[in-house]
Amino acid sequence: MNRNPKISTVVVVGAGPAGLMAALTAARADARVTVFEKLPEPGVRLLATGGGHCNFTNTLATDDFIRSFGSRRRFVAPALKALNGRRLRLFFEELGVPSHSPDGFHVLPVSDAARSIRDALRQACRKQRVEFRFNSHVSGLQIDCGRVTGILTSHGTESAAGVVLAAGGASYESLGGGASGFRLARLAGHTVAPLCPALVPLVARETWPATLAGVSLPRVAISVEFQVRRPKAAADSCSRGGNAVAASGIHAVTGAATNIEFPMHQDDARAAATGGLLFTHRGISGPVVLDVSGTVAAALMTSASVDITLDLVPDWTMEAWQGHIEKLRKEHGARTVPSVLASILPAALAKVVLERAAMPPDAIVARLTHAQSRKLIMLIKNLPLTITGTEGFGKAMVTRGGVNLDEVCPRTLASRRVRGLFFAGEILDVDGPCGGFNLQWAFASGFLAARNLGN
């Protein structure tokens, strides 16, 4: 079988979703592909996604899906258009893994098992004669005159015409997460935005959330506001410049590098989300919390705390609440305020709101003053909470921060520092909300990077 000489040999670092997709795509283009993975098997973290169910995409239209990445939308667009949700579902169906969307939004394999996705990718790679090197640590890159020519590993050197760094992020270290991929990127002259947990539960200063541990609400709106230093936006041009790696002679890059930038996204001066919320022993979690957690975590890198507000009943306006209380005052004035709140909120949460409003537990609706009513409504619509931390990378689903997007061509995911070097997945400074966005990005970026290896 004839091979394209430009991509005759490809090395993929990392056997997660992005790495497996990159390896399979390159192999199907007739490259000889070797995947290096530090764990003893591929896709270990993939097996844990979605509680083992693997929500790998969703049913949003492509443009809406892309917009969900906020300030990163321009960068992720080429990959997500090259392999959108519909095409990804067809891809897995061709591998023998049909999918469905039980709730009309989240897309999962019909098997309801992440293992079916992982095993299908591994089997397809083996069919294309992809070679896996497990328990292998990649310690450096070989670079010759500004072009990558191979890697250094715990077992020796490996030559390659192209290298895809898909080593993942820092979250879930027990499942393969860590800083090894970022270190390799720095060694190639790339800057890396400081890493912080994203899609992670938040820790509160106040103690009252702990009294509600296990209590959940189906729909809460969270608002976060703070000042942000805005990084420069990634350019569209794919020209390479500012080669930070020595350009003469063959050398192995294994030293340290420290260029960093602040990890806030451009539209993070205000973060807001609506969805389910869960109170925990340390603070809050649930989809709505996870969606703003990366922004909060980034802010906590330069601030001791971040103030957020919870709208406990977002579908009711302030005016609607005022009208509701006035109607109760006239028609059911003898009811107690706790009984009224408990008909809308969980009883334990209603009690917390009343305590923070300094209202006695036997308060009667008819006797509420206008000032008391306003204070109660304000707390329901803007319940303050002070966030002092996150539950860390051990509980984070993804990583915020990563390889600076200004230094990577969005149309190809090629490095602008070193020719023949590509990036895919969580190693890049891209993270999306809950709901299949990050896995879709991993697969799509792996696909796009591998497809451009010969360019």
Q: Would you mind describing this structure in some detail?
A:
With 455 residues, this protein is of the alpha+beta class. 31% of the residues lie in helices and 23% in strands. The chain has a six-stranded antiparallel β-barrel with strand order 12-16-15-13-17-18. A five-stranded parallel β-sheet has the order 6-2-1-10-20, with helices on both faces. It has a four-stranded antiparallel β-sheet with strand order 9-8-7-14, with helices on one face. Helix 10 (318-331) crosses helix 13 (370-381). The protein starts with 8 loop residues before the first strand and ends with a helix.
Which key features would you list for this structure?
single chain; 455 residues; 6-stranded antiparallel β-barrel; 5-stranded parallel sheet; 14 helices
**Which structural class is indicated by helix and strand composition?**
alpha+beta
Largest sheet: 6 strands, antiparallel, barrel
Q: Rg to the nearest angstrom?
A: 25 Å
Q: Which consecutive residue ranges, at least 5 long each, have pLDDT under 50? A: 1-5, 228-237, 239-264
Taking the alpha carbons of the first and last residues, their distance comes to: 20 Å
Q: What is the averaged pLDDT score?
A: 88
Shape: elongated
> Total strand count, please?
20
Strand content bin = 15-25%
Helix content: 25-40%
- Identify the strand order in the major beta sheet: 12-16-15-13-17-18
Q: Treating each run of at least 4 consecutive H or I residues as one helix, how many helices?
A: 14
Task: Characterize this entry briefly.
The protein is built from 14 helices and 20 strands.
